[in-house]
Design a protein that fits this description.
The protein is of the alpha/beta class and 229 residues long. It is 23% helix and 24% strand. It has a single domain, classed as Dihydrofolate Reductase, subunit A.
Length: 229
């Protein structure tokens, strides 16, 4: 595992269909497709969580899935739940505010003091980093320096995944392949964000492992960023 001097090592983990989709359609919960993962793959997901110091998802994922982001099916401590939420408008009834694990909400300076105070009132920590949007490189530095996070996983949607890759903050990717095709022009895929202009901007992946976990193919990659950018 490559360790960086000022940020955690980051693993992106996700289930995807054969056509690269995360859900059945726009604004649908990913839990619908996760029901079709083999039990062994569910155990792999929870084992991976237990091996990490923190887990990050975007606030839209929380609104749609209302995930707990805890370790439940294997022994182990739940990681710190980290949610970037620039304006601090995440629903306070979300399951991530339950006292079953530590939670850190990262906001920008655009979050109002009353929203910050309301989040802290749930028992969660609030980190302010970035002026209008959460500064992800700064956030990872804070997680590393203040919270001792050495290894973090992200189970993000296409927006968070793109921003993390755009800032070159993802070191490896683990994909759980589901044998379905769902289609849809606006169905969320693994990575969203802006279009690239040429093949020079492609982020290349080095396949380091592939195996069957129950009935699911799992592939693991190291992330190779373009040197020209």
């Amino acid at each position: 595992m490559t360790q960086h001097p000022n940020r955690p090592h980051v693993l992106m983990m996700s289930e995807i269909t054969a056509d690269g989709k995360l859900t059945l359609k726009k604004d649908a919960s990913s839990k619908i497709l996760m029901k079709y993962m083999a039990h062994e793959t569910e155990l792999l997901l929870h084992t991976t969580r237990a091996e990490c110091d923190a887990i990050m998802v975007g606030s839209k994922t929380i609104r749609i899935d209302n995930s707990y982001l805890t370790v439940r099916q294997v022994p182990g401590k739940s990681p710190i739940r980290v949610i970037p939420n620039s304006r601090g408008d995440i629903p306070l009834s979300s399951n991530i505010f339950k006292p079953d694990a530590e939670t850190v909400i990262a906001v920008s300076e655009a979050a109002t003091p009353d929203r910050i105070e309301a989040i802290r009132g749930t028992g969660a920590d609030v980190v302010v980093c970035g002026s209008d949007r959460v500064d992800l490189p700064l956030l990872l530095n804070i997680l590393y320096e203040k919270y001792g996070v050495k290894r973090m996983m992200i189970e993000g949607g296409p927006t968070l995944n793109w921003h993390m890759l755009h800032h070159r903050l993802v070191d490896e990717i683990r994909l759980i392949h589901l044998p379905f095709i769902v289609g849809g022009d606006d169905t969320p895929s693994l990575v969203g964000g802006m279009h690239i202009e040429s093949e020079d901007e492609m982020i290349r992946l080095d396949l380091k492992s592939h195996y069957l976990c129950g009935t699911n193919l799992v592939t693991e990659y190291d992330v190779l960023y373009p040197t020209s950018l």
